[in-house]
Write a structure and sequence with these properties.
The protein is an alpha+beta fold. It is 23% helix and 24% strand. A hairpin with a 2-residue loop joins strand 4 and strand 5. Bound molecules: flavin mononucleotide (FMN). The site of flavin mononucleotide has 10 residues, from strand 8.
Length: 201
């Protein structure tokens, strides 16, 4: 008898904060890639990737590896893997499972998104951002969140450059379809996605 699948969070291993190539080399190697194979990231890489994106680097102040306007910290990093959709919880450095469906295909319009191991989706929580009428807010309400996301996405690019992983930030997607697949609330708005995986050999 097969049992119904149950929600499964992923406790990420401790990030290695002493590793990586020199910063100037990472900047020199940063690039967007659109050819991936389906190999999974190691536990250490998944941990390092999420910590680079939006981990807490000053626990005593609860502050992150990327800045946010007025320290509102309204950004959320969702992680689409073959095993399901997860929300990164920086305070406990774990991936909270939202559901166990593989929605990588819905994260973008390009073929490689369903092949690559990881697609990050950067989401703004407009309630946390302090926006009036968050459920009805127009695109202008997302300006600062878009800037915040730029920093996070660049952290991911640099981590990938250091790990020799392929990476590309992406705005080309069907946002309403993706929001539905992610079961987002109306005050949660998608900014961009970012694919990460092993480069095609
Ligand atoms: C906001 C933004 C959205 C982007 N959207 C996509 C996208 O949907 N698909 C894609 O393949 N590349 C996308 N890119 C990547 C750019 O095409 C890429 O950065 C540009 O061609 C320069 O290449 P480089 O990143 O290797 O320097 C996006 C980049 C940015 C900053």
């Amino acid at each position: 008898m097969s049992l119904p699948s149950i929600a499964q969070d992923i406790k990420l291993v401790k990030p290695d904060k002493s590793g990586g190539i020199p910063l100037m080399q990472a900047l020199n190697n940063r690039t967007s890639s659109r050819e991936y194979d389906n190999r999974k990231l190691t536990d250490e890489q998944l941990s390092g990737l999420l910590w680079a994106a939006w981990g807490i680097n000053r626990p005593e102040e609860g502050k992150h590896t990327a800045p946010s306007s007025n320290n509102k910290q309204e950004m959320q990093v969702y992680v689409s893997l073959e095993s399901g959709l997860y929300l990164y919880v920086p305070e406990s450095h774990l991936l909270k499972q939202i559901h166990n469906r593989d929605i990588r295909k819905s994260t973008g319009k390009q073929d490689f998104v369903e092949i690559a191991a990881v697609n990050l989706v950067f989401v703004s929580d407009l309630i946390k951002a302090g926006v009036t009428n968050p459920e009805k807010a127009g695109p202008e309400a997302l300006n600062t969140s878009a800037i915040n996301t730029g920093f996070m996405a660049q952290n991911v690019y640099l981590y990938c450059a250091s790990e020799k992983l392929a990476c590309v930030v992406r705005g080309w997607m069907d946002t309403p379809e993706l929001a539905k697949a992610m079961e987002l609330a109306p005050h949660q708005r998608i900014i961009v996605s970012q694919t990460v995986g092993y480069p095609k050999k």
